[in-house]
Amino acid sequence: MPQAGLSRAARILVALSIAFGLSYIPVLGLSWSSDIGTVWKGAGVALLAVAAAVEARGRDGWLLASMLALGALGDVLLEIAGLTAGALAFMAAHIVAITLYLANRRPALAPSQLILALAVVPLGTFIAWSLPADRAQAGGVGLYALFVAAMAGAAWASRFPRLRTGIGAMMFLVSDLLIFARMGAFEGAIWIGTAIWLLYYLGQLLIFLGVARSLTASIGG
């Protein structure tokens, strides 16, 4: 995974993050305590947040660090406090992310890119709303999905590289849609937990790399 432009300390933190993030699923299969699993889960994105803080040189750098820290908090809260607490932390992370991306809008967007950035919000929200088998959950799911879909659309319209930040944000959205699909048609699918985690973690990693390297290049330039 390219890390050029980052400080040595940040590169070490990213390497540790990758080690925790990619090993989390195998760790779940071990007979360890749930506390170790929770710490392991939170460590992947938490280390990215620390790396972002190490690299931060201004408002945008600290927004990135805050967004990732709130994501790591959400990972942990999902395990120790339940879905609502975790979702609230992630919603806060999405608000911070949207603030970052809108402050770094591309000067101009091709019509097709603008359509995608705008369309992902209603489409992502509607798909999420339609997925839970228990329709009493659909409203809350749709509300949460509005935030994550808006984050993905804002990332796609930002100046940060789409092959990292844009794709990473879309992977984050797909990960959440799979969570909601597990509440319906994909309930019990043996592959879905692994897919959810890898899309989420690798999405966060790509977001970090795209934003952090762009901010570093801007300072260097």
TrEMBL record:
It is found in: Membrane. The chain crosses the membrane at residues 12-32, 84-102, 114-132, 138-158, 165-183, 189-212. This is Lysoplasmalogenase. Its main location: membrane. Keywords: Membrane, Transmembrane, Transmembrane helix. Belongs to the TMEM86 family. It comes from the Bacteria. It comes from Sphingomonas colocasiae. The keyword Magnesium does not apply. It is a multi-pass membrane protein.
